[in-house]
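ok so I'm stuck.
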Amino acid sequence: MVSAYHREVFPAGPFVPGETPVPVSGRVFDEEEIQYLVDSSLDFWLTTGRFADQFEREFAKFIGVREAILVNSGSSANLLAVSALTSEKLGDRRLIPGDEVITVAAGFPTTVNPIIQNGLVPVFIDVDIPTFNADVSQLEAAVSERTRAVIFAHTLGNPFDLDAMTTFTKKHNLWLIEDCCDAVGSTYRGQKVGTFGDLATVSFYPAHHITMGEGGCVLTNKPLLRTIVESFRDWGRDCWCAPGKADTCGKRFDWQLGELPHGYDHKYIYSHIGYNLKATDMQAAVGVAQLKKLPGFIEARKKNFATLMAGLSELREFFVFPQATDGSDPSWFGFPLMVRSGAPFGRTELVTFLEQKKIASRMLFGGNLVRQPAYQKIRHRVVGKLTNADVTMNQAFWIGVYPGLSSDALEYVATSFHSFVSNRRVVAHV
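replied:
not stuck anymore, here's the structure
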């Protein structure tokens, strides 16, 4: 019945140039995701359950890490990863208010927000062009006696320089958090991103490599960090029992922590100032179905990226094209472009034209975040002048490569770019 419903409600249609939208991202699914969702709903187990357990096991195996902790969004995953590093359970390595965390200025807000939300100080470095990742040449200049961690995203799926980053963090004994929300399946020297840092984060929003609607994950190889992340996720409690379970530790009424009386119920002992950021089992059920398709999704993204690169390559006179980081094989989230300063048109004129053609585009996230209104008065440090972050803010954008785009849609995108540039070239020479 679900299969019949899917065929009727979500029929595949032909691509009609100029009429069919070309989004930057979107959910790609079939009847299997709906079947899993219905299966989960019939349990009426509305919190984390059997599908969440299955997803955590299978996703950890896919990435190549020991621990995967499912949460309700990629933004929550970042919040939990940074918050975990403030735990007293980490002893002298814990982060305390006023400690500094190095990050990049040109990125997405929720990579940076947990630094601020935990009373820490972001230290912004510039972005490299054309990888659009952190400029690792500025790392040493960013270090101070208060530096304790770094958090960077693999921009649009392109891994940042992990050789330089891991060497730097080991030299200074810093925590490394990889924001992999745009980069599931990307590899660096043959190793999947998300396996290099102390912690890594992933998003399962509809725009990302797989979707749960809402959802995210924290990854780590360190059991202590898993325990801390789960505590912050689950109200800050000390107990690690799964929902609906009790006495996993075998001494539920035999603990003495803080100034509580001996034997106080371990389910109600709190070791952190936490949240409730669990995902539902219905979300996880969709994720389990999506995981089966993930290898195909990754290959489709790479293929679509290559198709656009070939279709637009003759326009290098007008655009700076993306470049994969040396040693990497990106699972691209999008196709970034930057309008050259000498082009006979600007970014706004181009993206307005594309919107009229029903071709969606997006800015490279927050541009230079220190110029965003939300960050005008925060405590922070800046390394250098952030020149490239400003250039990115003013001239860069990206278009979609997600698996739902057909070859006809990609051909239409390339043709539209050529048409726009051809008309502007003529005007410029009149």
